[in-house]
């Protein structure tokens, strides 16, 4: 399996990949489209994957044999689709520079990466609780669509167990800080307080709810919720208790009335375009305004940043703002990383034990095949009226086992590297995963026994 990996964590996140790329890939790279791309590149269907698409990352957890070149091809196909359907002005990527924008971890490192991401150790906001729920939802969706099963299940279930333990046993989530809190910090760079500010939020989902709660906690004067579906805006406003719903068209027509506008919505298209802000400075009468876009794909057209007295922040701008948060939680993060390392090692140890037991079972079946072959040959001799001595049969079985074992071991003596379990060595030497388990399939009338790797050993 040289050059290929069983579990790969491929990540395009805020540290390496600009928001324009992430949002384009998120727009075209849905579960179904990604499955189609992967299947076309691998030319087989024996794989599983989970797509983790949030405001900070576009990550793929891949389970099955895959090479680094194939991973590059998957992201390049995704990018080519983005160029033709989303934004032709995106950077031109190729096989040589694609890894400038994504990171890839394999096998043990991939497990460690997944655990860290889920525990919010790799988030824009260290310790924020939303990512745990987002990854659980992503995994559940993959299961429902049939894209994740027996390969992904054990790792994700262990991951969720570890994350719960980290959140309960460390201070990583203490005084919970979220993207919503980061948005407030960005706004505070322009406005000292929110007490006299009119605020508009685009969106009525979980992120919009979190942002609105933060705004109300900081004594915002009035919060309006605008959404494409009015009843969802109405429901969120009712839940918050101190907010008012707006239909989307009314909100866009009244955009100049708001000091702060925050986009926390789903969908693939811009909600707020530059043409919605015609004569905006005049209507605002020189007053400052802040726009914060924490959506992926973005919902506010970036070119509005050119408008006088208007400040625009997007999700990547919040990184420097939250550096202080990461510093304050450094000790908790260190403890969490130690816990993850220990849990990963335990998971690998248990997985190796199961693998070894499976290979021992295969070896048992392998030996049984040889014995059954010799017995079946003796039975044929009996049917032909020949005399069969039990000691002769016993000696023949023993000699055959020794001969076959020596032959296979000699041919496979060069082991790729030294860090292998006993079970792996058994599998490597005797090709147990390829060995048929039904003895009758091994018996050949011409006295030739078929063994793994399409090699035939003649016994005379």
Describe what is shown at a glance.
By secondary structure, the protein is of the alpha/beta class. The protein is built from 16 helices and twelve strands. The protein has three domains: 170 residues, Glutamyl-tRNA reductase, N-terminal domain (Beta Polymerase, domain 2, 2-Layer Sandwich), CATH 3.30.460.30; 148 residues, NAD(P)-binding Rossmann-like Domain (Rossmann fold), CATH 3.40.50; 110 residues, no CATH class.
Any overview of this molecule?
The protein has 460 residues and is α/β, with parallel strands linked by helices. The chain has three domains: 4-173, Glutamyl-tRNA reductase, N-terminal domain (Beta Polymerase, domain 2, 2-Layer Sandwich); 179-326, NAD(P)-binding Rossmann-like Domain (Rossmann fold), CATH 3.40.50.720; 349-458, no CATH class. 49% of the residues lie in helices and 15% in strands. The chain has 16 helices and twelve strands. It has helices at residues 19-28, 31-42, 68-85, 107-118, 130-145, 152-169, 179-188, 206-217, 230-240, 248-253, 280-284, 318-321, 323-328, 330-383, 390-411, 422-430; strands at residues 4-13, 48-53, 57-67, 103-106, 198-202, 222-227, 243-247, 260-263, 289-293, 310-314, 448-450, 456-458. Helix 2 (31-42) packs across helix 3 (68-85) and helix 7 packs across helix 8 (206-217). The longest helix has 54 residues, at 330-383. The chain starts with a strand and ends with a strand. The model is unreliable at 435-460 (pLDDT under 50).
């Amino acid at each position: 399996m040289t050059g290929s990996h069983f579990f790969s964590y491929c990540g395009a996140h805020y540290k390496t990949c600009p928001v324009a790329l992430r949002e384009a890939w998120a727009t075209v790279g849905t579960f179904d489209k990604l499955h189609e791309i992967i299947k076309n590149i691998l030319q087989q269907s024996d794989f599983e994957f989970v797509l983790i698409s949030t405001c900070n990352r576009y990550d793929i957890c891949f389970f099955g044999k895959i090479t680094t070149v194939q991973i590059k091809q998957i992201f390049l196909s995704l990018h080519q689709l983005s160029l033709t359907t989303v934004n032709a002005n995106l950077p031109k990527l190729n096989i040589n520079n694609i890894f400038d924008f994504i990171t890839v971890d394999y096998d043990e490192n991939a497990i460690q990466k997944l655990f860290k991401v889920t525990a919010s150790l790799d988030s824009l906001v260290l310790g924020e609780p939303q990512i745990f729920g987002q990854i659980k939802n992503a995994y559940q969706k993959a299961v429902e669509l049939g894209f994740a099963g027996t390969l992904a299940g054990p790792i994700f279930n262990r991951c969720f167990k570890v994350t719960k333990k980290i959140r309960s046993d460390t201070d990583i989530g203490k005084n919970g800080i979220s993207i919503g809190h980061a948005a407030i910090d960005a706004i505070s760079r322009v406005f000292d307080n929110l007490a006299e500010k009119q605020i508009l939020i685009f969106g009525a989902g979980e992120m919009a709810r979190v942002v609105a709660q933060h705004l109300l906690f900081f004594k915002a004067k009035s919060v309006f919720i605008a959404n494409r579906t009015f009843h969802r805006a109405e429901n969120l406003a009712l839940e918050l208790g101190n907010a008012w719903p707006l239909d989307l068209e009314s909100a866009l027509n009244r955009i100049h009335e708001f000091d702060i506008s925050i986009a926390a919505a789903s969908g693939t298209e811009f909600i707020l375009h530059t043409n919605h802000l015609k004569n905006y400075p005049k209507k605002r009468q020189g007053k400052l305004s802040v726009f914060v876009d924490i959506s992926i794909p973005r919902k506010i057209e970036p070119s509005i940043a050119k408008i006088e007295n208007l400040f625009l922040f997007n999700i990547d701008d919040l990184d420097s703002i939250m550096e202080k948060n990461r510093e304050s939680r450094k000790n908790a993060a260190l403890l969490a990383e130690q816990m993850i390392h220990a849990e990963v090692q335990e998971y690998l140890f248990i997985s190796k034990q199961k693998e070894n037991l499976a290979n021992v079972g295969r070896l048992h079946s392998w030996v049984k095949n040889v014995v059954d072959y010799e017995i079946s040959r003796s039975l044929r001799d009996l049917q032909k009226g020949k005399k069969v001595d039990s000691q002769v049969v016993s000696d023949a079985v023993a000699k055959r086992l020794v001969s076959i074992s020596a032959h296979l071991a000699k041919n496979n003596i060069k082991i790729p590297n030294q860090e292998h379990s006993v079970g792996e060595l058994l599998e490597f030497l005797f090709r147990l995963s390829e060995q048929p388990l039904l003895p009758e399939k091994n018996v050949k009338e011409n006295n030739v026994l078929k063994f793994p790797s399409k090699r035939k050993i003649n016994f005379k």
